[in-house]
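User: Can you help me understand a structure? I only have the sequence.
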Amino acid sequence: MPSKPSNAGKPLTYADSGVDIEAGDTMVGMIQGLMRRTHGPRVIDRPGGFAGLVRLDYNEKLFRRNYKEPVLVACTDGVGTKVKLASQLGVYDTVGIDCVAMCVNDMIVEGAEPLMFLDYLAVNRLDPQVGTAIVKGVADGCRLAGCALIGGETAEMPDVYSEGDFDIAGFAVGVVELDRAIDTSRVEAGDVVIGLPSSGVHSNGFSLVRKIVSSAGLDLNKVYTELDAQQTLGEVLLTPTRIYTRAIVRLLRRYTVKKVVSGMAHITGGGLPGNVCRALPNDLDAVLDSSKWTSPPVFAFLQKHGRIERGEMLNVFNMGIGYVLIVRPSFANSVMKHLTRLREDPILIGEIVKGGSGVVRVE
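Assistant: Let's start by predicting it. Here is the structure, written out as tokens:
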């Protein structure tokens, strides 16, 4: 005879399937204050709403300006396998910043101002404390970026994610004046390339990073003198991605008539060669001089312990430059001075030359 089901006579609940509604409700209550700290006058408060509301065109009495021909700009991204490292180390309050950075740094390349952000968090089983720590990072990132965290989603999926695993992704919406949107056709031979330093590995190449750590037997909890920091290897690797939004938005607002910035690039997967080329028309190349900047020690550390060739390092990691601007040469000094006043450390790293394939050479 067939055996009786183990739950015979007992009604099933959602919790029996591994989903805890009460934990989700608890977390929602814990993160409300974090979200409100990111809200400005654009946000229309709707407690308990099913979606977030943000003003686009607005009253001049409340805001500094209106858009004449507003164009919405949207992007989405995640943190990649950096979340595995965060889970392994039990450090959850930095990857939220990474998630925001990966979205808004892409957005400002188009000349846009970020307006709002939403996050998606997927877990095996929701721990409200862990979830709140992750969302705190998202809120911190939104404050750095000057955009509002207006909502999100948390999903418990025990059949999809193993215990302790999680993933996070973000979605950002911004706006740009149509005639101020960045267009690659504006780039000319003779333009100069200005780089803004990264804070380290940022959020790309972590599958290779984790492979190096594993194959070389590195200890994430050890302080290595090669890294020139009073931090463990794990802390160095989890350093959040820099957010360049406020500096870039303010810089673009400074030049309201002349379009002195002809192109920009966020240096993510593919490194400098794979991202600067996206800012170039097909008949121009970029020549970058790697002697102009000093890469953070973490890159030499990874290259040494992983026995990685230089070309592979350049094609995977940012190598110390997280964001690039292409600028008219006559305005280079002005742009760099203004970026310095905005607490950036701009470096003149190359120039645009005539070419035939839109390639980037790092020499």
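Now, to help you interpret it: The mean pLDDT is 87. Residues 289 and 363 are 5 Å apart (CA to CA). Let me know which part you'd like to focus on.
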